[in-house]
Amino acid sequence: MTDFFKKHTLIASTLLLTATGFATRLLGFFYRIFLSRTIGAEGLGIFNMVHPVYGICFALCAGSIQTAISRFVAADVQKGKQIFRTGLAISLTLSIALSAFIIRFSEPLARFVLMEHRCASLLPFIAVSVPFSAVHACINGYYYGIKKAKIPAASQIAEQMVRMAAVFLIADILLESGRAVTVELAATGHLVGELAACLFSVLCFCLFTPESSQKQPGFLASLQQTAMPLMALAMPLMGNRLVLNILSSAEAIWIPNRLSAYGLSSQEAISVYGVLTGMAMPFILFPSAITNSMAVLLLPTVAEAQADGNESRIAQAISMSLRYSLYMGILCIGVFTLFGAELGVGVFKDPSAGTFMQILAWLCPFLYLATTLGSILNGLGKTTTTFFQNVTALVLRLAFVLVGIPRFGIMAYLWGMLASELLLAFLHLTSLKRLVSFSWDAIEMIVKPTALLIISIGIYYAVFSFWDGFDSLGLFVSSALHIGVLAVCYGGLLAVFHLAKGR
After folding, report:
1. What whole-number distance in Å separates Cα of residue 481 and Cα of residue 63?
2. C-alpha Rg value of the chain to the nearest Å
3. Which DSSP category does 211 fall into?
4. What does each C-alpha distance from 140 to 68, 273, 290, 454 come to in angstroms?
5. Could you count the other beta carbons within 10 Å of the beta carbon of residue 108?
6. Which helix H or strand E contains 106, and what residues bound it?
7. I want to staple 27 with a disulfide (CB 3.0 to 4.6 A). Which of 160, 166, 452, 473 is the partner?
8. What are phi and psi for residue 468, nearest 5 degrees?
């Protein structure tokens, strides 16, 4: 077994990040449940309106540099430390400048850009968190490049646990002293979590990173040698992510505004937005812990394979991504369609959250496909292609926001999400097909898992029509166990068919 994992680094690292992803998302669920019951749907909506500001900052100073570090380190491990130091210096400089700007102009940003004055008090928390995010993003990029996912995985756990502990403690102190719990609680949790992840990553990097056998040049010499090639890769990614985050920010600002045009009050509009983004979407995104882990690790793996001229390895990575993304997405259609209503009521005490989940269930296969295929395209150096395709999908979604919401309400946005992710997955797939010759079997990847899901649902209903020992355990626990039974049945059938084919 040990030899297998040594030979299959991608699989081993994906399993590690997946396990971590599930753990952090599970913790995140309890965290969001707590937030929804303390600051309410409106509070969640306000907090989610400022989060795009963090996304823009992260795109400018951290996300693109992390990706560049990961790719350069994967291509030349001996220069890994040198590349990391350069990336960290640039990232920190940019992040501190952005942080100062947001703090200085928090009031006008909230009033004239976010169009919600209550966001002003949250922006300083977001601003201060940016340098911490930059540091831990660069460290994670280095470890992804050398294909050692343990440190990034552990930092995710540390971040979530410290965030939850801090928020629970602060809320308890406020309630005991008779003071109101406000949306600033969520912003504080965000800041504390990023600080914890930063400190943990720095500590691990100092203690556990082996010294390079190659003599490292001084900082200034290192900067001169690596800054230009690093930024040559990072700048297009930075531009891409910036445009995408600006469009996403526009979406977050316009949705409540367009809901008001539909006839909702400002409070109702922000509450609906909070239910969608703070309650329903986390459930839809929960299974993406697997596909996101694959996406993160596929980029350096594909980049390395391309550098070696190993097209068969790239084709194998694409086929594997397609297969498992579709397997997971098709299962999620069944889960959220059948159990969305129970999850919305059982977890958040909000039936509309369940309705959103049932509609967005059909999003899952295309969302998971787009994530992994986009990462492969980036790994092949086709960042411009992914950028234009992402922009196209976002513009389509914004059209639904601007034109559809005033006529059809929030349902128009849900339709827009489905349409945009379907388009994006299709564009990514066709682009990859032109670049690499890989196997694509619709029967194997779509028809078979769909048929097995239908059979699994049939078995599930056959079993629980005669016996249901979970009903007495409460709605949420009962739903979770029912989902577990369905997932095990589906996974078991997939495993049987794979073994029968000798895979």
Report:
1. 37
2. 23
3. P
4. 12, 32, 18, 40
5. 10
6. helix 106-108
7. 160
8. -145, 90
Separation in Å, CA 394 to CA 249, 294, 385, 401:
11, 23, 14, 10
Q: Can you tell me the distance from the alpha carbon of 25 to that of 285, in angstroms, rounded to the nearest whole number?
A: 9
DSSP sequence for 9-48: HHHHHHHHHHHHHHHHHHHHHHHHHHHHHHTHHHHHHHHH
How many angstroms separate the most distant Cα atoms in the chain? 73
Q: Which of 196, 253, 233, 208 is nearest to 55 (CA)?
A: 253
CA distance 315 to 8: 16
Contact 369, 322 (CB under 8 A): yes
- Calculate the alpha carbon distances from 211 to 147, 160, 205, 222 in Å: 16, 30, 11, 16
For 224, the 3-state DSSP assignment is helix
Q: Are 338 and 457 in contact (CB under 8 A)?
A: yes
What are the pLDDT tens digits along the chain (503 aa)? 444 444 455 555 556 666 666 677 777 777 877 887 788 888 888 888 888 888 888 888 887 888 888 878 877 777 777 788 888 888 999 999 999 999 999 999 988 888 888 889 899 999 999 999 999 889 988 888 877 777 887 888 888 888 888 888 888 888 888 787 888 888 898 899 999 989 998 998 888 766 655 555 565 666 666 778 778 777 877 877 788 788 888 888 899 889 988 988 888 888 898 888 888 888 888 777 666 666 656 666 676 677 677 777 778 777 877 888 888 899 999 999 998 888 888 777 788 888 999 999 999 999 888 888 887 887 777 878 888 898 999 999 999 999 999 999 999 999 999 999 999 999 998 998 888 877 777 788 888 899 999 999 998 888 877 776 666 666 667 787 888 888 889 988 888 887 776 54
How far is it, in rounded angstroms, from Cα 91 to Cα 238?
11
